[in-house]
Amino acid sequence: MTGPDDYCPPVQTAGRPAGRIDEDRCSVRALARGDSGVATASPAQRWLLIEQPGPWGVDALRQSRFDPDVATALAHRARAEEVRVLLVRRPGDRLADSRRRWAYVDGRPGREGLWWSVRESDAELVDAPWDGTAGEPAGGPTYLVCAHGGHDACCALRGRPLARAMPSDDVWECSHLGGDRFAANVLVLPYGFYYGQVPGDGAELVAAHTAGRVALPWLRGRAGCPPPVQAAQHAARGALGLDGVDDLPSRAVRRLTPAGEAVERWTVTLAGPDGDVLAEVESRPSEAAYRLTCRALHDAHARTWHVRLT
């Protein structure tokens, strides 16, 4: 059975949305407003990917077919070691490829890597080494597309078609990445680049990362970098035409205003090919408040980012 690109067939499983993209969805409203996803990448720098086909509830790890007795211990270890747990599954007709895999991912600069292993039981993950010493290294970029409809409908309605269509052999649906209104959201590992509002089949994004470049039009930021650095890097990449994945690393960040003020300011120093690049960065709340996700019950102000290169 086939349908238009914005349609997901009804699924009779609790926690999995069914329907169409309509004007009340958070991702549709965000596109209409022109919301920017810049500087919204996660603070995480290490991940544990757990292949888990089947439905996922709002809390994917605990509300899936993963062993519930193991889930609590695994979540406790992940918090203690500052590792983010994501469930993954093959999209669409690739489900037959499921083999109870798991991967440890390190996105820290200079340590980047992703290593795949296969587990006999879920309990193995609690004591498995999360340091890259186990498993086989991935041969290139790995693409995770948020398709966690149990968390937000837009993630499934936009993410699942994109995951099915992306021209890569290493693409997965994944649980909640954050930034639901920017669906379809993609995380490129091991570097940890977050993308939002990825159009079409994502071919331009795949082509860029295959060549060691970022796809700037949809880039939200690099995971682990503070938001002011993400904002400064995005502006400098556009102004200087530097799109290599390793371009413009941060050298220094200096806060100019107390944390928590409505308007916050920083100076950010980036390492450019011809010397330091200096940026003045300002963040302030959006003028209007609105619902940031499909599940939100109240309006809220988003942060907006403004950069001046000096």
Task: Flag low-confidence runs.
Answer: 1-18
The main sheet comes to: 10 strands, mixed
Q: Please write the string of helix (H) and strand (E) elements.
A: EEHEHEEEHEEHEEEHEHEEEE
Helix content: 10-25%
Give the overall form.
Answer: globular
Q: Distance N terminus to C terminus? A: 55 Å
Main β-sheet, spatial strand arrangement: 7-6-5-3-4-9-8-10-11-12
Number of strands: 16
Radius of gyration based on Cα positions:
19 Å
Structural class: alpha+beta
Q: Provide mean pLDDT, rounded.
A: 91
Strand content: 25-35%
Tally of helical segments: 6
Explain what the structure shows.
The protein has about 300 residues and is an alpha+beta fold. Helices cover about 20% and strands about 25% of the residues. It has helices at about 25-35, 70-80, 125, 155-165, 205-210, 225-240; strands at about 5-10, 20, 45-50, 85-90, 100-105, 115-120, 135, 140-145, 170-175, 185-190, 195, 220, 250-255, 265-270, 275-285, 305-310. The strands form 3 sheets. Strands 7-6-5-3-4-9-8-10-11-12 form a 10-stranded mixed beta sheet. It has a 4-stranded antiparallel beta sheet with strand order 13-14-15-16, covered by helices on one side. Strand 5 and strand 6 (about 115-120) form a beta hairpin. It is globular, with a radius of gyration of 19 Å. The N and C termini lie far apart (about 55 Å). About 40% of the residues are buried. Residues about 1-20 have low confidence and may be disordered.
